[in-house]
Amino acid sequence: MNSSHPSNVCSQITPIGRGAVAVVAVYGALAGTTIDACLLTPGRQPFTTRKHQGVVYGIWKPTGEDLVISKRGEMHFEIHCHGGTTASQAIIGSLVSFGFVEVSATEFATQFQDFWNVTTQLALTQAATPKTASFLLRLVTQLPQQVQQIRNHLAANEREAATTQIQSMLSWSNFGKHLTAPRNVVLCGEPNVGKSSLVNAMAGFQRAIVHDVAGTTRDVVSQAIAIDGWPVTLKDTAGIRNSENPIEIQGIAQAKEQISKSDLTICVFDAHAFRQSESAEIISQTKPDLIILNKTDLLSPNQPANDDSVSDLPTVKTSVKTNEGIRELIDIIGTQLVPEIPDKSQAYPVTAEQHRRLAETLDRLDQKSPATLSHALD
Known about the structure:
Elements: E1 9-12, E2 21-27, H1 31-38, E3 39-40, E4 55-60, E5 65-73, E6 76-82, H2 86-97, E7 101-102, H3 105-109, H4 115-124, H5 130-155, H6 159-170, H7 173-177, E8 183-189, H8 195-203, E9 221-227, E10 230-236, H9 246-261, E11 264-270, H10 276-286, E12 290-294, E13 315-317, H11 326-337, H12 352-364, H13 370-373
C-alpha cells in the first residue's frame, strides 16, 4: 500500500448514479474485524472465520441492507449492495464510524497500482467514442512505461533527456484532455441567420427550436455529436445584436461567455441579407475561427453570395434546405479541431492531475536533484 494514504480507507468504486449494483471497496487493518462486527451471515458465523471467504451473502447490521461481500486480499474486501447512492453511502457512513476514511475511486485504486496506470484506465471508462477509446487503450500501458523512463533519466541525472521527454508529452496535453472532454463548437451571429437549423442539420435531428422570428433562441442549446470520431458539443447561442429586452440581453451575455470558452467559434451570416458593415462589427466582437454564409437557397441565380469582403477566414456556403455545404462544413470543423494527431509511439497526459505532475517536474528540474524530483511523478 502507498504509505502516503490513510491506513484504513473505503470508497464507492462503481460510477455514482443509478445502477443495479454498487460496489464499496474496503482496505486496511480494521477491514476484517469491522466486517465481522457489521455483517450478519445466515449461519451467524463471522466472515473472517469461514473456511470459504470468496463470496458471502449477509445483512449489513447498521443499515439492514442485503448484500454480498467478496474477499480480494488479506485486508482488501468489496461490498456489493443495491445500486444508486443511498445504500452505498449508508454503508460508507457506518465504515467511517468504525475509523475508515472515505476516498475517491482513483485514490483507492492507487493503493494497489501505479497512479499513471490507474488514472489512464479510469479515463478509458469515460471515452465517448470508439476512436477516443482506441487512443486511451494504447496509453494504458504506454503512458506508465514512458513515465518510468523519465524516472530512470532523473535517477541517472540525465536532465536533458528527462526534460525533452516531458516537453514532448506536455505538447500533446490538449489532445489528451479532449479524449474524454468534448470539444466545444459555438455557433454565433445575428438573430435569424439559421444557427439553430445548422445545429439540427449537423446533429441529424431537430434539437434546437427553429422559428423565423428573430431572437427565438434565448439560451444556450447544447448538442453532443461526434465529428470524424471526435466528441464534440455543438452550442447554439442567442443572436448578437443591440437589444433593450432584459431576457435577450442575458442570452447575448451567455453567448459571449460561451464564445470565450470555445475550442472553435463559428460566425454565421445570412448570405441573402449580407451586410458588410455589420459583418465586420460582429466578426470583431466574436473573433471566429470559421465563417458560414447560410441560406444560399434564397439567393437568386444572378445574386451570388457576396463573401469577398467577409473575412480572410475559412468560409463555407451552406443551405439547410438543399443540404449544400453541410458535409463540407462538418469536414472543415473536424480538420480545424484536430489538425494533427500524435505518433503511435508518443505518450501524453489525459487528465489534469497527470498534466500537473509532469509540468511540476519540468518546472523544478533546475531547482532540485533528479533523484528527489522523481517522486513528483509518483
